[in-house]
Amino acid sequence: MERFSNISMAVVRRLPKYYRYLEELLRNDIKRVSSQELSKITGFTASQIRQDLNCFGGFGQQGYGYNAEELHKEIGKILGLDKQYKTVIIGAGNIGHAIANYSSFEKSGFKTMGIFDVDPDIIGEKINNITVRHSSEAEQFIKENDITIGILCTPKPKSQEAAECLINGGVKAIWNFAPVDLKVPDNIIVENVNLSESLFTVSYLLKEKEEANAKKR
Amino acid sequence: MERFSNISMAVVRRLPKYYRYLEELLRNDIKRVSSQELSKITGFTASQIRQDLNCFGGFGQQGYGYNAEELHKEIGKILGLDKQYKTVIIGAGNIGHAIANYSSFEKSGFKTMGIFDVDPDIIGEKINNITVRHSSEAEQFIKENDITIGILCTPKPKSQEAAECLINGGVKAIWNFAPVDLKVPDNIIVENVNLSESLFTVSYLLKEKEEANAKKR
Question: Interior CA angle at B64 toward B61 and B68, to 5°?
Answer without folding.
Answer: 85
